[in-house]
Amino acid sequence: MNIIKKQKNLLIGIGIFAMVASILLLVFGILLLVRGIVNTTIAKLIIGPIMILISAPLFVFGFKAIFVASALKAVDGSLKQDNLAKVGTINMKKCDKCGTEILDGETVCSNCGKSFEE
Ligand SMILES: [Zn+2]
Fold first, then answer.
1. What is the 3-state secondary structure (H, E, C) of the chain?
2. pLDDT < 50: residue spans in the chain
3. pTM of the full predicted structure?
């Protein structure tokens, strides 16, 4: 299994987990508010809304993770595997002379001194 597929599966796993967790949070939050599983009114009125509030960004996070993972599929064929260092954020470039990884903003290779300025 190559790196991209590994990252993709991991991201999809995280995404699905986050989405399921957010739905559970939402359901329990609503149940807590409506049905009052906990007898204490304060707990009911605070924990319920907090659970519902947390579920929204968690759902977005899960959706985003799955979205990035699905985008990786398109990248798979077009980019060299070793050029993709971080998922969805930075495409790590390499010095075409010696193969050392080039950091963002670097204009000269830290290993061989080759200039990358165009
Ligand atoms: Zn170099």
1. CCHHHHHHHHHHHHHHHHHHHHHHHHHHHHHHHHCCCCCCHHHHHHHHHHHHHHHHHHHHHHHHHHHHHHHHHHHHHHCCHHHCCCCCCCCCEECCCCCCEECCCCCECCCCCCECCC
2. 80-89
3. 0.49
